[in-house]
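Sorry to interrupt, but I need a hand with the structure work. Please put the record directly below this note.
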Amino acid sequence: RQGIGQQAAAPKSQSAPAGGIMKMSAAAPMAMMPSPDIPVPDDPGTPAKLLEYMGSLGANGTLTYSTFLYANRISTPDLQFTLRQSGWVTIEYPLLPALGLTVTTFLTYSNGVCHDMAFANEEDLSTSSVSKIRYYMGAGTYIFNIYDPVGTGVKGVPATITLTASGSTDEGGNNNPEPLDPVNFTVTPAQVVEYTYNVRSWTKSINSPLFVENLDYTYNGNIKWMDWKQDSQTRKYTYTYDNLSRLKTAAYTGIGSEQYGTSYSYDKHGNIKTLQRYGKKDAGNGSTSFGLVDNLTMDHIGNQLTKVTDTVPNFVYIESADFKNYGGSNAIYTYNLNGAMATDSHKGILGIKYNSLNLPYELLIKNTEVSG
């Protein structure tokens, strides 16, 4: 019968390694695996049990493989192939009188022992001259052989076996696309981003179809200016620094009435003493919609910030991202004995609890916008 052959008992001299590849004769010489692109050689004479890899098979794919088949199961080669996607696979080869009435048997290994393998779904499409059997298989690696269950011949017969995989559907005809092949996978990128560097390996430019940025530096490595272009519009920041390389100003050049510049000053400890920031005050786009959104003065005791005074009132417009002071002129920061902040009346933080690692685990807050 075609399809699933009867399990054959292995002679005592046969053994199958636990790894799952069985060499049927300990005396079998090593041989090169036949290839579809190389003509089948002459009959090798003394049969040797070999494991021959046919190749990898994907959706709508075909494998054609030439080898020597033997009527007896001990000598006929084990043929291995990889199925990249679940689907129907047809195994086809000519029926040759010298081989007798052949069957196609799939093998599996369990605890180092070889067993015949059955499929729940198979279909015999053979004719009087061609063996053609169709199986439904899951993705994986399979081993099969072709032989006559009652054959004893030891003469190799040249034969060509063709494996054909169905399209990208499962047993019920549902879509079952083939997974990406990590070896042959190619991709056309949506965009290419290119970077350039100066002789000190500092980034000079970033270029892509959607975004372009350029940078220039001072002699000591501070960024002197940067500009960027997006949606055909270019914006720019120009920076200045004090003698300790601390940022003093970031002058902004934008589109129309945009204003997003900043300026800073520092105390003798290096803490920020004053900060001015320009931004958007409301949802409009005119000149009155941009202006000073923060004019901050910071008070410190040592290096601990104790108070922030903002001469610019809070803005309702959320995109202004201005400093919000809900505590008025009496707002202060307090700290616990470990130096961690205990309260912040600027934001309405009434208390913070810490664990033994001085990490906060509870925060009590109440202001005009949030309470909890």
